[in-house]
Amino acid sequence: MAIKILVVDDDKKITALLRRSLVFEGYEVMAAESGEEGLAIAVSWQPDLVVLDVLMPGMDGWETCRRLRTLSDLPILMLTAKDDVSDRVRGLDLGADDYLVKPFALEELLARIRSLLRRKRSGENVSKLAIFADLAIDHASREVRRGQRLIPLTFKEYELLSLFMEHPRQVMKRELIMERIWGLDYSGESNVLEVYIGMLRQKLEEGGEKRLIQTVRGIGYVLKE
């Protein structure tokens, strides 16, 4: 059965280009010209991945992403004309899995789609319960606990913590984390990763618990006691 991809963009030239290219690559494709139409198709058609434009009339990509994320954990790749770090953080925090700035190379978009689909398949094989020290993740319910304390995380915070829990005591380079979680080439000028590490630490240590996500200066981070 072909992998199903939904393209949501009000630019008919872009949707036509993506439809032709994705069909050529062997995907089954449907397109929507608005957030409202995209949501309706997502509910009825159950795509495996969504390519979602940010700037659309009516319901924009931000709100569409937020609503899609309440319905499913399917991968979402956002397209935007803006390259500000704050816009990337906003989209990723709403539940997007990756972020591509227009104009983009078609080859890069296809590569990111393949990467997101690989990560989805890999995630389906992860053990349902992961435990490190007094920290536990239940992948079935997506609940995170530190001792008896339930910790509410955003979608991207959860994905980041899950990556650390998959590789305890292993030093992870910034570039690897960015590629695995955001599908982005790490740039020294971008502080997206640092922002998310800070937010995650604040939530994990809110009850005064010991820091588990340690900084390895000049390299990246490690989950250790």
Question: In words, what does this structure look like?
Answer:
This protein is α/β, with parallel strands linked by helices and 225 residues long. It folds into two domains: 4-123, Response regulator (Rossmann fold, 3-Layer(aba) Sandwich); 127-223, Arc Repressor Mutant, subunit A. Helix content is 43%, strand content 21%. It is built from eight helices and twelve strands. The protein has helices at residues 12-24, 35-45, 61-71, 85-93, 106-124, 155-166, 174-181, 192-204; strands at residues 4-8, 28-32, 49-53, 76-80, 98-101, 129-132, 135-138, 143-146, 149-150, 172-173, 213-216, 220-223. It has a five-stranded parallel β-sheet with strand order 2-1-3-4-5, sandwiched between helices. Strands 6-7-8-9 form a four-stranded antiparallel β-sheet, covered by helices on one side. A hairpin with a 2-residue loop joins strand 6 and strand 7 (135-138). Helix 2 (35-45) runs parallel beside helix 3 (61-71) and helix 6 packs across helix 8 (192-204). The mean pLDDT is 87.
